[in-house]
Amino acid sequence: MSNSIRFHPDHCADLQKSGHSDQTRINTPRGEKMDDRIARALENAPEIIPRIKVPALLGGLISRGYLQNLDSKGLGPRRIMIGRRCAYLKADLIAWLISRAK
Hints:
The chain is an alpha+beta fold and about 100 residues long. It is built from five helices and five strands, in the order βαβαβααββα.
């Protein structure tokens, strides 16, 4: 059984345009579980991560604006508000990323 990430075409317009089947697989290197890779990528992050810092921590994979849009729809990671600023608990962000990667 290979370790892979499944992306549903509804989440990626490029896959819809290309006419792929219902799901597309992307293999993870070295047979490592995606859950472990995501957790390892954020292991040095602080326990509370401001929304503005998330793109830098994820190498630009997710933009601040995209997170704002998801938050407004209630689809983003669980957030905390500190004054007018939005932040995420590291554990909540990791859990949300893992749920999106499956």
